[in-house]
DNA sequence: CTGAAAGCGCTAACAA
DNA sequence: TTGTTAGCGCTTTCAG
């Protein structure tokens, strides 16, 4: 079925297949009459051009890929992650392309090619949207070498210039979240942002920066903890007088993992329930939780749209494409 | 880059491209000597056969697709849904295929083709795994017409024979969940399973069946509510004496949507907090919630593997392929 | 405006 | 064991 080829359509319409090809591709050099005739025949037999053959001739796939990272909790553990996809898809379909998702993990064992690698090397897509976490040195080289257009979601941590990315404005997010806690009356606000993590992940460094700036504006003390142990000791069983003194009114967790680490700790430490918790990325489960969590709301769909739009601009080699987009956030509820 | 073709490899190796093709495809009729030579040249130039061209020649894509349904809350709203994907991917890579995800929604407006339709009609994949919710009459016809092998996740609700599916054993799940609540000491156990929904969705009917069987075994009263209103009235402000009497000790919600409907209602009705809640599909957030939720644990990775394995069997036209797989569940924590 | 022919990169008979 | 020759289905010169 669907075996019907351009040649058969041509025969049926009594024209050459080149003519059929012209109507398929909207070539203007064609008489209204034959165009209509061919179109009718195509419709009648619901002919659909074979995309593989088309791809071979055009040396294109008419497909953009999205690679998600299995190990990226920030993405998949967030049930609202799919909104990004929705945004991407809308743009992709408007451009009459296919949207293909693949998943991958940054596996170090080079024994077998990663999905990502195969897709790039085999040119299975014309462009790629990948998460920050997948843009390591090796993958970067690969993309460049194969001249594969790409956009990164999440600001890149690679010290490369010119890597195009789309991300939420993490500095601003850090600011408004801190501002929100201050509005709530908190003064002693601590932030859980690992030193190593902040080095590795730009988004953590930025969130920290937003926090720091806000606290300093309000002349409040900046208190950063890098490991949960520090916090735990403040609430430990042998807590000294000074530990009790050191307890903050609020704690900002830079990632959901950090948040859950604290929440898990809390299950054995009712004292912790006094603290106001806050985190980034949508967290709509908050209202059902024992311990409510303040969070920042992100227009993820917009983020997806921005990424896809940027990708198409790159694919079309449009001049003057902005190399990055930051998306503002607001306090969620 | 990567422009290197089979012809150039052939020239470099001083052989015919057919010979190169033979080593690519592991043809046995080739001398060890030339095979090694060609392989060396290929490696040296990291030659990768163009998959598009290969696809055209083979009339295959070496790709299997997975279509997820945006509107299917049961899938995407569940952060652990990706485990299914992990299972699928493992099998797919073992078969040296690509795995491509697309998302779709059962949009009734026929104005534009759905992604699903395009993928099928254009033969972008050799086989497809799709959720139950996408297998409507129209899509079914399409798959059959285009002879596209497919497997459905979630038992099919279409009254078609021979639709291959993989699902959790929903009857068993209903049983163990009910059994679990009984073990906990509950006697008045109500189940929220919409009448219309149970008609439409086989999985609801099955869960209900498991509940019913267990309750009857224990000589307990089967109490089914089809709309949240019934329950709400039992807890409403003007609750009569009889309403209070009618309050169950436990409530089983057949879907997460139903569960959240109850949880949202609860926010204004502390009385409801007395009730034991239970639901299906993994719900690991339970331990962080104000109101803990009993749930059934599913080996989603296994489900993915089963679906993919079945698909490959179908693609290879293996004889005697079982038409369905039911996967047992256990109580989660 | 339309047709004929070459070719995209690879595979698969059929010969040699 | 290897080379030759057609295609796979479509696009795209280049003539007419």
From TrEMBL, chains A, B:
Keyword Transcription regulation (UniProt): yes
CDD domains given in the database record: HTH_LacI (cd01392), PBP1_LacI_sugar_binding-like (cd06267)
Key word Plastid present: no
InterPro entries: Cro/C1-type_HTH, HTH_LacI, LacI/GalR-like_sensor, Lambda_DNA-bd_dom_sf, Peripla_BP_I
Record keywords, A-Z: DNA-binding, Transcription, Transcription regulation
Signal peptide: none
Domain HTH cro/C1-type, residue spans: 3-34
Superkingdom of this protein's organism: Bacteria
HTH lacI-type domain span: 4-58
Protein's name according to its UniProt entry: LacI family transcriptional regulator
């Amino acid at each position: 079925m669907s075996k019907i080829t351009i040649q058969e359509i041509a025969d049926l319409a009594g024209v050459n297949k080149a003519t059929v090809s012209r109507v398929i591709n909207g070539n203007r050099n064609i008489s209204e009459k034959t165009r209509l005739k061919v179109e009718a025949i195509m419709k009648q037999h619901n002919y659909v051009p074979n995309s593989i053959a088309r791809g071979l001739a055009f040396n294109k796939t008419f497909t953009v890929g999205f690679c998600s990272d299995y190990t990226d909790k920030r993405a998949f553990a967030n049930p609202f992650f799919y909104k990004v996809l929705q945004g991407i898809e809308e743009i992709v379909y408007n451009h009459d392309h296919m949207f293909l998702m693949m998943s991958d993990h940054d596996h170090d064992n080079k024994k077998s090619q990663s999905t990502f690698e195969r897709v790039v090397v085999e040119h299975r897509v014309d462009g790629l949207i990948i998460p920050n976490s997948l843009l390591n040195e090796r993958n970067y080289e690969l993309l460049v070498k194969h001249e594969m257009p790409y956009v990164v979601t999440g600001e890149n941590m690679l010290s490369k210039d010119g890597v195009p990315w789309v991300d939420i404005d993490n500095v601003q997010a850090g600011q408004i979240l801190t501002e929100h806690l201050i509005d709530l009356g908190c003064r002693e606000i601590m932030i859980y942002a690992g030193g190593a993590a902040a080095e590795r992940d730009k988004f953590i460094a930025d969130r920290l920066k937003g926090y720091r700036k806000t606290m300093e504006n309000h002349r409040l003390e900046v208190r950063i903890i890098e490991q949960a142990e520090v916090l735990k000791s403040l609430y430990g069983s042998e807590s000294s007088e000074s530990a009790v003194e050191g307890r903050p009114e609020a704690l900002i967790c830079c990632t959901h993992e950090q948040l859950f680490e604290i929440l898990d700790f809390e299950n054995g430490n009712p004292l912790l329930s006094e603290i106001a918790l806050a985190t980034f990325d949508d967290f709509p489960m908050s209202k059902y939780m024992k311990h409510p969590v303040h969070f920042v709301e992100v227009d993820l769909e917009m983020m997806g749209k921005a990424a896809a739009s940027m990708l198409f601009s790159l694919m079309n080699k449009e001049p003057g494409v902005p190399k990055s987009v930051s998306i503002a956030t607001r306090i969620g509820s």
